[in-house]
Amino acid sequence: MLKYIFLLINSISILFFNLFFGDGVTLTPKLPSSAKPNSEFVAEFVVKKGGTSGFAKLQIELPQGLSAKEIESKGGAFTYTNGVVKYIWTSLPSDEEFTIKFNVIADASVSGSKQILGKFSYITNNAKQQVDFGPLDIMFDASSSAVTATNTVTPTTNNLEPVNTNTVATATTNTTTPTDNKVPEAFSPTKDPNAAVSVHRRITATGPDGFLVDLVIHKENLKGFAKYTDKIPAGFRATVVSTNGASFSFNDQVTKLVWVSLPASEELKISYKLSMETKPSSKVSITGEFSYLENDQTQKVKSQEDEIIIPAEVTTPVTTNSVVPETNTVTPTATITPIETNTVVATNTLAPTNTVVATNTVAVVETPTATNTGAIKDTESTNSSITSKTGGNASVNFQVQVGAFKNNISTEKIASIYNINDNIRTDMHEGLTKFLIGNYDDYKGARDKRENIKNKGVSGAFVAAYNSGKRITIQEALMITSQKWLR
């Protein structure tokens, strides 16, 4: 009985929207009114754009237990992060009416009524328009079968800025350390005097399977919406390091950075990491494109093509029956150097009492190799072999960051969004309010907490470090406390 009452309410809602708003730009969601847990269904949104063109954004907020996967974007940039689905168009499709689709995945724990909220933003006659829609209710019951409910919403002129105020900032101050244990110098290419907008890229190897990609875009006084994409070769995976205020995504071997409103600075500095999962059999390179709006027209600037130089493998010689004396000094080195000799080589400068002769053999002095782990998940950048003779420092502690926001959000709201029962603290850092939980003297404890909170759905959680209340990198914290990084 309740199910039929629920469907009747949805039908009344359809009639209300159609009669009240009349004609113009309309958005019609097509979602089932009921579904089963541990199932999938298609969400459709039909857009009638009237006479509008140019920039537009559709944002849909999914409740906990639901996730999304792209099906049809009609030329828009699709992203799904922390329960929020976004479609962004630099220019709307030419069709008067078009439909976008995505797959909604419900996990086994979903039950009861769940609500989906959203908003559609666009520009018409140089005025920014926005309309909120929802809540759209979906009842999850193991005995339910999907019944599609349709609601049409039409925006009114409210001149609101189409800005997502809940965008999670992904910028981080951590940098990836290359194999020689030195942080790469800042990438500051010279601006091309003959071009108003130019793109520069640098690729630095950080290990046998890892690379750091730095980008600098000279944009002069450009404002408003912009997008940058890099086409990544097959066999490589990209993860974000620093976005300069953009939202980052990596799908179908393409990295996308989208700015709803460009920063005021004349330079955009971006960094991301590449992990080589399959070694290429031939030369591979990266190409990219920067697109932006100028006088309501989309402009595009191509970047140069840059080759990814794969580090050569080091072959370790195999020897037998070699006699090597003990040494009192361990010196890190990047290779194992074979030394042909007929006598024992002593590296501690002390003459041995008895001379031992190994005829026709090759003595090899093997010393530890200092290596770097390359790409590290969750923006925690450090070295897997970091040790220090500095004594432990009780003022250094490790915490788990669950989110960072530009706008004012209460800790109660964060606890509700992420279903967190721990005490949540805030830290103002780099213009963002960062939300943290836990307080650990050892990195392992914070790492375990991070994995626990990730398993609860907070996919962007990572470990942060503080020294006497000041934020420092994980690498610095591990060196100070003589601890080792753990994956």
Question: Can you describe this structure?
Answer:
By secondary structure, the chain is mostly beta strands. It folds into 3 domains: 2-150, Immunoglobulin-like (Sandwich); 198-307, Sandwich (Immunoglobulin-like); 377-481, Sporulation related repeat (Alpha-Beta Plaits, 2-Layer Sandwich). Helix content is 10%, strand content 40%. It has 4 helices and 27 strands. Strands 1, 2, 3, 4, 5, 6, 7, 8, 9 and 10 form a 10-stranded mixed beta sheet that branches. Strands 13, 15, 16, 18, 19 and 20 form a 6-stranded antiparallel beta sheet that branches. Strand 5 and strand 6 form a beta hairpin. The longest helix has 20 residues, at 2-21. The chain is globular. Residues 3-23, 156-182, 314-379 and 381-393 have low confidence and may be disordered.
State the separation between the terminal residues, measured CA to CA: 52 Å
Q: Largest sheet, described in full? A: 10 strands, mixed
The third-level CATH topology of the largest domain is Immunoglobulin-like
Give the total of domains: 3
* Outline: globular
Please give the CATH class of the largest domain: Mainly Beta
Mean pLDDT: 74
pLDDT under 50 segments (min length 5)? Answer: 3-23, 156-182, 314-379, 381-393
CATH architecture of the largest domain: Sandwich
Structural features:
487 residues, mainly beta, Immunoglobulin-like, Alpha-Beta Plaits, 3 domains, 10-stranded mixed beta sheet, 6-stranded antiparallel beta sheet, 10% helix, disordered N terminus
